[in-house]
Design brief:
By secondary structure, this protein is α/β, with parallel strands linked by helices. The protein has helices at residues 13-22, 27-45, 53-68, 111-118, 155-162, 179-185, 219-229, 247-252, 274-287, 299-318, 320-325, 332-341, 346-366, 393-400, 430-454; strands spanning 48-51, 81-84, 125-127, 168-173, 188-191, 211-216, 261-265, 291-295, 372-376, 405-412, 418-424.
Amino acid sequence: MTQAPASRAAPTARDYVDAITGGSLTSRKLLDACLAAVDSGEERIHAWAHLDRESARSRAEAMDDIRRRGRAVGDLHGVAVGIKDNIDTAAMPTQRGCSVYAGHQPTANAALVDRLLEAGAVIPGKTVCTELAWMQPALTRNPHDTTRTPGGSSSGSAAAVAAGHVPLAVGSQTGGSVIRPASFCGVYGFKPSHGIISRRGVYQTSPTLDQVGVFGVDAGDVALLADVLGGHDAADPASYLAPRPRMLAGYLSSVPVEPAFAWIDMPYASRYDEDMAAGCDELIDSLGPRIDRIESPRSFAALIECHKVIYEYEIHRCLADVREHHFESLGAVTRDGLERAEKRSEAEYREAIDVRRAALEWFERFFHDYDAIVTPSALGEAPAFEAGTGDPVCCTVWTLCGLPCISLPLLIGATGMPMGVQLVGAANADDRLMRTTRWLLEYLRDGADAAGDES
């Protein structure tokens, strides 16, 4: 069941940067290839909320001109990056997956968009997100099987990368909205520690839980993209002013000793699909003494409810204007969620905040002994499109605590759909998590090669 990650024939985003800055490829040629991929599959997948082809072509040509003139080039020079439609862009509408915001045009870029432009990226358009980046499914379909969901809320970002429309995309996660779509679509998804990437200009649904994440076809690529997006921003109260982990440097470094992994038997483990459970068991067996199997503390069940309380209490207030003036324009799932959220009390919320604080302290101690937790990215394969965007429960505890998480496309389900395995690391030790990620990928690849030689 475990699929060792094979060497990719397709270039990574880092390969494209090297080719563009080295002169063997132009940004315009890469963009044209991306747009051709959009044209061949978008009618089937619906990954894009807005495309601005002419502006993207002009930007690509400008990046090529910069390189030809021998001027400084950026870390993502000339590479196309999709942006989730809940992230403000001054040059394109930001419609937040909601008819209430149809045609909405921000006056300024989100902080992360300016960082992308500073790094030389080309932004061809905005990727589809679920309504208000919450639970109401969008039109986007899974590129591997269009009868299935790509996950939410970063539906379009994950699907666009999986379909080859762009090598990189940006999303956001408040519950499981990066890791789950990455799992369903068979790409790498990375949510850095809370506070690494500024949320200024990202539509706010929960000040405590909202986080930015990224998608790519390669683990090193998502590390690079997170590096580009990261940085202090005084306008975001969660952004911290301290030295930050360098994710790509961590990924490219060697481990000083073999990593120590933990598998926690989570309170929802009985809900894993049979093929997900079997694949994870194989992975645990392959790691042998390098992984400890641990019973989850009884408090973990409370953490899942804690996340729900905080999310609902805060989203009810963040969406106050939409709720009060446009309630009937919202989808049924969103309306039901807001009605449920209205019942959350101040006392419940304060108690949940205290529980979260205690959990942060628990994990700080826990990661003294372990480099990463191994855990499913989702319960199993992507469900049918009509069933919704999938259950985010496999991400709830880690998102609540703001821990860095990466989904690795390691498993194939019973019907041939991709499934992700998630590695979770210590807060603000994202470089350590990336270093551990590379070790695991190489370990699995070496094991697969050895098995192939024996056969």
